[in-house]
Amino acid sequence: MARQARTVIPGQAMHVMVRGNNRETLFFSPEDRRIYLDWLREAASQFGCAVHAFALMPNHVHLLMTPQTKDSLAKTMQSLGRRYAQYFNQQHHRSGTIWEGRYRSSLIDPDYFLRCQRYIELNPVRAGHESSPQDSSWTSFASHIGGKTEPWLADHQYFWKLGNTPFERQMNWANFVKDGAPHWEDQQITESLLRSKPWVSDIYANKVFKDVPEVTQIRDRGRPRKIKLINSVT
């Protein structure tokens, strides 16, 4: 069976996930995570991806990135994946693949961007690893509330709409994440990602994919329910 073509639009954000093979651990130490982030920064800069958010879980990774070209995302993930796999195998005296097949990716409706970023930064809490996002050492949440920063992260235009000053944006983001998300929204994001389908509104789908509606269709479970669009959390 032919591989499903990825839906990538240059300049539009993508939610990306990569898992360890057989759900095995990818990160055994803070050094492993630091190296992965450093190499992510280098690959994204080299191949033209803006990185907005991340969550490094023990056996998988969530990323939110905007590719500049059609090939930017694939080249970034391929370069990062090969480099980290070589390091991991050498470090832990093993061989073979460390990844569970291809990475998953989901194009994100711009009006849904902040919701997807929240989903990613709440991943450790949702998985039961942490009691609050503030306790997560290896997500981008701290950078977005003015704590431990990753200066190479690129704030999306919708994040900038949260306030006129850094403090205002940080406070609004903290409150938005604190409010959490409804379970059905988490389900939509997860299902779209696992099936590598865009997470978009009907309005966006009809505008961008009207000639290829099958691109956004998730069969057997119906259309996603409508959600309120957000341009601000104030």
TrEMBL record:
- Top-rank lineage group of the source organism: Bacteria
Sequence ranges assigned to domain Transposase IS200-like in this UniProt record: 9-123
What processes in GO biological process is this protein linked to? DNA transposition
What is a single molecular function from GO for this protein? DNA binding
Pfam families on file: Y1_Tnp
Against PANTHER family, the record matches this protein to:
TRANSPOSASE IS200-LIKE DOMAIN-CONTAINING PROTEIN, TRANSPOSASE, Y1_TNP DOMAIN-CONTAINING
What protein is this chain from? Transposase
